[in-house]
Amino acid sequence: MKLLRRSARRDSAAIRLQHRAIRQAASLLLAYPDERTPGRLVTVGALLDHITGPERDALDRTASYLHATDPLVVARDYVETFDMRRRSTLYLTYWTGGDTRNRGAEIHAFARAYRGAGVEPPVGEAPDHLPVVLEFAATVDPEMGEQLLAAHRAPLDVLHTALVECGSPYADTLTAVCATLPPVTDQEVQRARHLAEAGPPAEAIGLEPFTLTVPPRRDGSPAREGDRPA
């Protein structure tokens, strides 16, 4: 029995290490494509050597797309996919908080979690941005990172479904990410379905005391009226 328990502990440790590698690779693959992308892909290649099973193949398909596609096309498609379509936003609290003051509190909860683990939230990106959360879960605090991801399983499922439906090469990366989380419950399935059908919550009144900051567009131009808050 002792040998079996030791073997189970080793298996559990190996699974946790693989999950961390998957999340780190996914964080790099979901980052905005820029001049650092080639270096990120080198790191992803090294991480794939430590990942087995269908998750490795899924991540490799996204990486192969980034390797083989013209960088300008990749950047254009990234913006169209994640910045222009509400159903495929990478900001996890957008689906749970929407355009309400609750979203600000949820964003601050991410920031508090980071500070509680001894790191500062990133500069230039919201703390609920999926690549940021994945990097935190992979490299800083795996347990808290998994809690943050699991708490937003419904938005992740909505995002995954949206990417599959539009044929995005990033759908494979979301498949791998979701595979690192506990099995989805019936309640989470229903919640994701409701979010997909009804959209994020919104407030018609009372928004004046709290305003979400709209950052400049990725091409460097200033934000314009109607842009979605980040």
CA-to-CA gap between the ends? 52 Å
Q: How many domains would you count in the coordinates? A: 1
| Gyration radius, rounded | 18 Å
Question: Would you report the number of β strands?
Answer: 0
Number of helices: 11
CATH structural class: Mainly Alpha
Content-based structural category: mainly alpha
Instruction: Encode the helix/strand succession as letters.
Output: HHHHHHHHHHH
CATH topology: TorD-like
Percent of residues in helices comes to 55-70%
Provide the low-confidence segments as ranges.
203-217, 220-230
CATH architecture: Orthogonal Bundle
Average pLDDT, rounded to a whole number, is 82
Tell the overall outline: globular
Strand content: under 5%
Instruction: Note the main sheet.
Output: none
How would you summarize what this structure contains?
With 230 residues, the chain is mainly α. It has helices spanning 2-29, 37-48, 54-68, 71-83, 92-97, 101-116, 130-139, 142-151, 153-165, 171-179, 186-198. It has eleven helices and no strands.
Keywords:
single chain, 230 residues, mainly alpha, TorD-like, 11 helices, disordered C terminus
How would you sum up this structure, described in words?
The radius of gyration is 18 Å and the shape is globular. The termini are far apart. With 230 residues, it is an all-alpha fold. Helix content is 63%, strand content 0%. It has a single domain (2-198), classed as TorD-like. The protein has helices at 2-29, 37-48, 54-68, 71-83, 92-97, 101-116, 130-139, 142-151, 153-165, 171-179, 186-198. Helix 3 (54-68) runs antiparallel to helix 10 (171-179) and helix 7 (130-139) packs antiparallel against helix 8 (142-151). It contains 11 helices and no strands.
